[in-house]
Amino acid sequence: MRESAFVKANISKWEEFERQISSKARKDPDRLASLFIQLTDDLAYAKTHYPKSDITVYLNNLSTKVHQYIYKNKKQSSGRFVRFWQVELPEIFWVHRKAFGYSLIIFLLSSIIGAFSAAQDDTFVRLILGDNYVNRTLVNIESGNPLGIYDSMGQTDMFFAITFNNIRVSFMAFAAGILASVGTGFMLFKNGVMLGSFQYFFYQKGLLLTSVLTIWIHGTIEIISIVMAGGAGLIMGNSMLFPGTYSRLESLKKGALTGAKVVLGLVPMFIIAGFLESFVTRLFGMPSALKATIILGSLAFMVYYIIIYPRKLFKNGVYTADRIL
235 and 259 in contact (C-beta within 8 Å)? Predict the structure, then answer.
């Protein structure tokens, strides 16, 4: 269909929608819902056939206005916060799964680079982790307590310090996305190199399994959450680089809001990770089977909540991939 014919066939419907949201009169919710469905269908058609047209921009903006109108006037239930973690956050994970996937790839490649560099240069670990940390760990290894650094501070003090630091790192990884995603990429690279060199250091000392069964008790949730925070930064950065039919500023605002929801939603994960590191990781006498159970259980939970559960909601029609976020 020619664009002019498409506009002529639907302009009256769009004008009615404009009147509906502009009028202060009581709205018919069924009529409003019907018009909104038709509008999103028209927007999808326009994006496919006239992607760079002014009419596509118009429909995109109108859809946004309507969506904001509907949710601005929607009564919030007492379970609003529950719904955020139950539906809204998983929806972001699903809709922006590519950004989170890229974040994971950057982090994994950086970890490999860190391990490879440590294998090639004996001074690399000291450069990345610092002489103080390496020297203290070497002393602990000689004394038969290679991961004794985890009980070097009081449990409560350690909990607050570690939790605050992890939340700070996640917000920095997100905020760095404002630098066209490059800043977030650098943060992911830096943390990935640290992890890779750290694990290789223990491998060199013949303590890889010991370190894995200790560090990943808390590290499973912590590292995955940092990767997700990196994904939030990429969402914001990419929204500025690729605004689509929105203005660059409007797209950036939407990307920043979506990313902020992610990092706020990850705060409970960092609290859990901080608790595990402060109160559980230091229990060096814990049976290896129990350690492995905690690690695998944490991994299963994160994979389910970030990947499996959002996909399940999508298949059940709770949300669609094209919904405006």
Answer: yes
